[in-house]
Specification:
15 helices; EC 7.1.2.2; alpha/beta; membrane; Rossmann fold; disordered N terminus; Thrombin, subunit H; Bovine Mitochondrial F1-ATPase, ATP Synthase Beta Chain, Chain D, domain3; binds adenosine-5'-triphosphate; cell membrane
């Protein structure tokens, strides 16, 4: 029996190693590590008693087909597991088999073009990816001296984002918004516009969203011709909280392999990172931990950091991530939103007011920010135009009350010009999306930064406007005839 102990020790050690060859042997050797018995079942939480070879935290164990992850060690021999598949048919005393390793997922070229679940298993109806290497989904973030900061921009072709909240190549960008303000449409548009022009690979990770959206995305990726250099991972809202909590880590493990072992640039899109926090809170509740601020788990900050700190650029390659963030009840002071915000280099805030006025994408020009918006990175002209656009829109915001009470006529000529410019800018910053063609009926447009700057500059310089505001609504670049009069 001591031989078994040594073996399990060896397997656990190699499962945590980053050497691919060592890891390869894990799958083979992990067949006979420890046997336990189901002691207690409470919802998705299962207590298992092991007499020997007690599994460690994060180890994967199986009761028949039911996969569980060890979340806590209760006392000598008893471990508390979180079920990753429905607990249907599970009974007390049933045998539990420990694999001696955490979840291992296939990595490398073999996963490209595939739609997979948290275990790296196919959900696209095709055979399992033919990968030679698999890795544990629990990895440490790169050490500080390995990390690098880029100061280049990822052009998205979306006017409001490129102008006011430029996305950092190799950085993290959040798309914040309450329910139904257009986060999913925007992230799909970003895939459309950036994945095609992106030289490396793209990963899309769906966490806790609707399965219908996953299906639509799969189809759209095929139409855009980017599917063969994209991996899609899903832990949707119908799945167990443990799955929604871990699927982001599966995505990152694959992204890290492309970055570190293949030296590629990775575009990582996550919809929706709030659902990761929410799943963590559900797991925490199942484990019986006391809730903390606003009912969230006490481990909110560390859990989020364990995911976000891995999304980083190193000397070997960059991971550029764009994450949709659901903001509960439109409350931006919500602890989950506030914590996510602190990890990002750019945040695009979507406003309900703009969405209700039909100003899509509903980017709030005053609340959206980016550390890239400095003269040193974007250039003096871009910086000055962005500042002037913000100032004009802020002045218009201040004038709105007066206009509502006294009417536009009561404003001074200078203020009237500000209002005319601001209303045209607001409309010019809307844009028809390729991903919204089916419900908006408008043909999508991609606009270069140069065209966006030229358009805004022209509006800012105009003093008399002979045209209609509506001419600026849902267009791409400003056409030539719209010159100053
Ligand atoms: N760019 C756009 N152009 C036209 N309509 C849009 C656009 N973006 C969003 N919409 C409208 O808003 C609706 C909701 O968008 P979306 O599903 O992206 O919101 P969401 O913020 O992801 O919502 P949820 O939080 O429910 O997932 C769309 O179905 C569409 O009617």
């Amino acid at each position: 029996m001591s031989g078994m102990g040594e073996k399990s020790e060896q397997i656990s050690k190699s499962a945590r190693s980053t050497d691919p060859q060592e890891q390869e042997s894990v799958a083979l050797a992990s067949q006979c590590v420890g046997e336990g018995r189901v002691l207690k079942i409470r919802g998705g939480v299962v207590d298992v008693f092991f007499t020997e070879h007690i599994p460690r935290i994060h180890d994967l164990v199986y009761a028949g087909d039911l996969a569980m992850e060890v979340a806590a060690l209760l006392d000598q021999g008893t471990v508390r597991c979180i079920a990753l598949t429905p607990v249907r048919g599970l009974g007390l005393g049933m045998p539990v088999h420990a694999t001696g390793a955490p979840i291992q997922v296939p990595v490398g070229e073999a996963v490209l073009g595939r739609m997979l679940n948290v275990f790296g298993e196919p959900i696209d109806g095709k055979p399992a990816p033919n990968a030679t290497i698999s890795r544990s989904i629990h990895q440490a973030p790169p050490v500080l001296e390995e990390r690098v900061v880029h100061s280049t921009i990822l052009e998205t072709g979306i006017k409001a984002i490129d102008l006011l909240s430029p996305i950092e190549r190799g950085g993290k960008t959040g798309l914040f918004g309450g329910a139904g303000v257009g986060k999913t449409v925007l992230i799909t548009e970003l895939i459309n516009n950036t994945a095609q022009h992106h030289k490396g690979v793209s990963l899309f990770c769906g966490i806790g969203e609707r399965s219908r959206e996953a299906e639509e995305l799969y189809r759209e990726m095929g139409e855009a011709g980017v599917r063969d250099k994209t991996v899609m991972l899903f832990g949707q809202m119908s799945e167990a909280p443990g799955v929604r909590f871990l699927v982001g880590k599966t995505a990152l493990t694959m992204a890290e392999y492309f970055r570190d072992d293949l030296g590629q640039d990775v575009l990582l899109l996550i919809d929706n990172v709030f659902r990761f926090v929410q799943a963590g809170s559900e797991v925490s509740g199942l484990l019986g931990r006391m809730p903390s601020r606003v009912g969230y788990q006490p481990t909110l900050a560390t859990e989020l950091a364990s995911l976000q700190e891995r999304i980083t650029s190193t000397r070997k390659g960059a991971i550029t991530s764009i994450q949709a963030v659901y903001v509960p009840a439109d409350d931006f002071t919500d602890p989950a939103a506030a914590h996510i915000f602190s990890h990002l280099s750019a945040s695009v805030v979507l406003s309900r007011k703009r969405a209700s006025e039909g100003l899509y994408p509903a980017v709030d020009p005053l609340a959206s920010t980016s550390v890239m918006l400095t003269p040193a990175v974007v250039g003096q002209r871009h910086y000055d135009i962005a500042r002037a656009v913000r100032r004009t829109l802020a002045e218009y915001e201040e004038l709105r009350d007066i206009i509502a009470m006294l009417g536009l006529e009561e404003l001074s000529a200078a203020d009237r010009t500000v209002v005319a410019r601001a209303r045209r800018l607001e409309r010019f910053l809307t844009q028809p999306f390729f991903s919204a063609e089916s419900f908006s009926g408008e043909i999508g447009a991609r606009v270069s930064v140069a065209e966006t700057l030229a358009g805004c500059e022209r509006i800012l310089q105009q003093t008399k406007f002979a045209d209609d505001e509506i001419d600026y609504y849902m267009i791409g670049a400003l056409p030539e005839q719209k010159t100053a009069v």
